[in-house]
Amino acid sequence: MPSPQTETPGLELQSPKEAEESQTPAQGSWRTSSRKEPNAHCKDGTRLGLGTLRQAFSRASQRALTQVSKEDTGLFRPSSCSLFRSFRQALDGGPAAGHVQATPEVPSGVMNGVSQQASTGAASEELKPEAEGKSVADLITERQLLAAFEQLLRLETRLVAEKASRTFEQDPTAFARRAMDVCLHYDGLAAELSAIVRETLGSDGVDAAVLAELARVVNAEEEAHRSPPDDGDFLRTPRHGRQHWEEAVRRSAQERVRRPGAGWASAAAEGASGLAQLLAELGGSVRRDLQKVRQEVQPAYAAAGFPAWEVYLRAFHSAVAQRLQELARDARGCEQLYVLLDWAANVYGSPDFLGPPGLALPAEPLPPLLAPDVWARLESDYTSFLEAKIASCFDNILQLEQSHWAAAEDPEVLQGLYQAPLSVDVHMLVAEHVKAAGAISAELEATTLRICTRALGLFVPRFEKAFLASEAVSEPHLGAYINACEELRTGILSRFPGTLEELEKPLVAATCSFQKHLLQGLQRELQPLFRVVCTRDWLTQDWLRPLMDKVVRFTGHLQRVAQPRAQETLQEVHRFVVREYLAQALRPRKRFWAMERMRGSQKMSLDAQAISDTFQGLGSEATWLDQAIQCVAEILGETYKDDIQRHLETLIRSYPDIRRDHILAILALRRLGCRRNQHLLQHTQDLLRAAAGVVGAEAPRGRVLFEEIKVPSAIAVRITCI
Question: Compositionally biased, Basic and acidic residues: which spans (predicted)?
Fold first, then answer.
């Protein structure tokens, strides 16, 4: 067969959406496929060798494939590659001599309307249908995709048949030219299909008719190439059109997901706010795209049986996961890590993010947005940064309190109680971080609570030491910090019971320390006033009023201290007054005789009643203290000596912590004779032993009075002499 002397006319194909999307390299490559081919004979009449043609065509075909692969692999790609392999085989010499390849069977209806042309010079005309006079390129440009595919399939089938009949045995380059045209038009059709998928979610979108056409083309391709031909090395290799369509959807989803934050520099440069803004834009973009898929794309594909919603959903899920893992690699600091975790768990993970309630989700669950090891690493990094942040926050709280001390500011009174910012700040710090962590996962919530608890347990004694060493120690501040510790203990422990073991001890210790210092201030004021008890001045002066006035003023601060700490402190003041009174009475500086002893008894009885009435009026519940001074007063003034034994019995039963030395001191105050003293001591000995057993086993909590009263040794010596 003579070599053709004609030139293959150019094929112009262009996507109508080129203004919106960047031009697909694949389209540019297949448009140039019909540029002027070199003549089979040179001007000097020397015929080009097959090796030279093979090398030139190989370079051209590889350039076309490279350009297309830069954008996407495209639909129908396996067929094009197969075709290139086939015509290279033809350039190498074709099938083995004597072997005749079977002509592949054409699907029903494909060959209708196609003329049989054997001449290689008519290759370009074969790309035009007879009925409408449009080239394949025009059909693709006008997006008559099914017609373009059917015509290409007919040309492909004819080319296979001619190759099998050894038509190109004398002119292999003619086969190469025609094969290249068919391949590049397939690539152009694939590129147009990919462009449609990309444009589907664009601002202008794609008509439902175009999407339906795309679905029909993919179904037709799968139907035409469902069974590979016997030769197995040519065009009709199965292309798996739906798989390539799904791949195009995945590429489209990746492009859409990467658009938000296109100018993103890095996590270190943008900070937590920049990362939050990027994720907000990403979430909004994905929501809008999936909504468009549900409302517009899925209905268009539904007629062809395409699972568009599931494919798009999985594609976006995979693309978002990839983008999030890239952001996670650069995330730094507690805030950025939390922004990522929170977005993944609460924004993307919210029930309505992927669709409205009731929307059918894929039968097979979507994989986790972040791989378990990535999620675990993010949580671990977050908690590491959180420990340092929590410690820094407690340092700031201490500095804030110190600034209040330096300014000599009295604490505020809210709802009748002293209020320190300490408790509010700590409550907010712990509650906010634990709540934020709980919004992500229960495990992170538990870890955050442990971090906060441990940090608070270390902070409380440090704060206590700093405050007591400062010059700001006063009744209002001590009352405020007693309230603060009590609020933290009851508030945090009731809300987070698991922290009881770690927080109970330091908070109770701090509360007791503040109570102790609060009492010590009052005790230093009252101590000198007790020295007058059982003196000559005591009998003539109203010494008790100034003492009780100081007590009443002090209890004004206690009214602004929360219960039960206020009641505990008031009872301690009550016990201190009774104890110090008795301590002075049992070591008198003057010995009473006759009438003075009677006046002393009456004075002591009046003091006991005044002390009892005052503390009862202040709200003290320590009524068990009322009999102590009164019993001593009755023993001091008792005229019937046999009744002294009865008063001693009452005293021992009421106060089990009383000892023999205390009994001796009371008897010395009464000035009984030696025989009477021995008789009373012998009678009370059994009662004292029983009282000692009660103190060791069942003594009421806090009821300690005589145990803390030290009797001077001189009195014991004098009593012994008596």
Answer: 34-46
- Per residue in 241-257, pLDDT tens? 788 899 999 999 999 99
DSSP conformational letter for 128: S
How many domains in the chain? 2
Cα angle, residue 253 at apex, residues 251 and 256 outer, rounded to 5°: 110
Alpha carbons 169 and 614: distance in angstroms, whole number: 128
> For 295, phi and psi rounded to 5 degrees?
-85, -30
Tens-place pLDDT, residues 541-600: 889 999 999 999 999 999 999 999 999 999 999 999 999 999 998 887 666 666 788 888
CA neighbours closer than 13 Å in the CB half-sphere of residue 363: 1
- Match 């994905």 to its residue by tokens: 286
CA 63 to each of CA 25, 69, 175, 269: distance values in angstroms, whole numbers, following the listed order:
11, 10, 19, 40
Q: What is the pTM of this model?
A: 0.70
Between the two ends of the chain, the Cα-to-Cα distance in Å is 155
Domain membership flag for residue 83: no
Q: Residue 521 maps to which CATH number? A: 1.10.357.50
- Between the alpha carbon of residue 286 and those of residues 88, 263, 352, the distances in Å are 45, 18, 12
Q: Which residue has the tokens 């492009």?
A: 255
Closest CA to 503 of 450, 562, 464: 450
The answer as to whether 187 is a domain residue is yes
Q: Which residues, including other chains, have CB under 8 Å from residue 118's CB and lie 6 or more apart? A: 162, 167
Within 10 A of 390 (CB to CB), how many other CB atoms are there?
21
Radius of gyration, alpha carbons of the chain: 50
Q: Same domain, yes or no, for 232 and 376?
A: no
Do the domain assignments include residue 483?
Answer: yes
**What is the share, in percent, of the chain residues with pLDDT greater than 70?**
73
Could you identify the residue written with the tokens 């959903």? 313
- Give 461-474 as a DSSP string: HHHHHHHHTSTT--
Sign of the four-CA dihedral 608, 611, 614, 615: negative
**Whether 181 contacts 11, CB under 8 Å:** yes
Residue identified by tokens 């369509």 is: 245
Average pLDDT rounded to a whole number, residues 436-461: 93
Q: Do 199 and 17 touch, CB atoms closer than 8 A?
A: yes
In a domain, 520, yes or no: yes
Among 328, 320, 333, residue whose Cα is nearest residue 281: 320
Domain boundary, last residue among 496, 527, 558: 527
Contact predicate 394/459, CB 8 Å: yes
Tokens 């993307």 belong to: 348
Q: Please, which residues have CB within 8 angstroms of residue 256's CB and are 6 or more apart in sequence?
A: 201, 285, 286, 289, 316, 319
Chosen domain end from 239, 261, 280: 239
CB atoms within 10 A of CB 283: 17
Helices (H), 586-654: 594-618, 626-637, 642-654
* Residue 95 to residue 178: CA distance in whole angstroms: 18
Are 382 and 523 found together in one domain?
yes
Containing 146, the helix (H) or strand (E) segment is helix 145-164
pLDDT of residue 587: 82
Look-up: residue for tokens 């006046």? 599
Spatial distance between the Cα atoms of 271 and 332, rounded to a whole number of angstroms: 9
Q: Which residue range(s) make up the domain with 158?
A: 136-239
CA 74, 79, 81, 84 dihedral sign is: negative
The token duo for 536 is 């000559």
Beta-bridge partner residues of 412: 419
Note whether 55 and 210 are within 8 A (CB): no
Average pLDDT, the chain: 78
Short-list 394, 407, 376, CA closest to 433? 394
Three-class DSSP labels, 409-460: CCCEEECCEEECHHHHHHHHHHHHHHHHHHCCCHHHHHHHHHHHHHHHHHHH
Q: Within its chain, how far is the Cα of 252 from the centroid?
A: 31
Q: Is 93 left (phi over 0), alpha (psi -120 to 50) or beta?
A: left
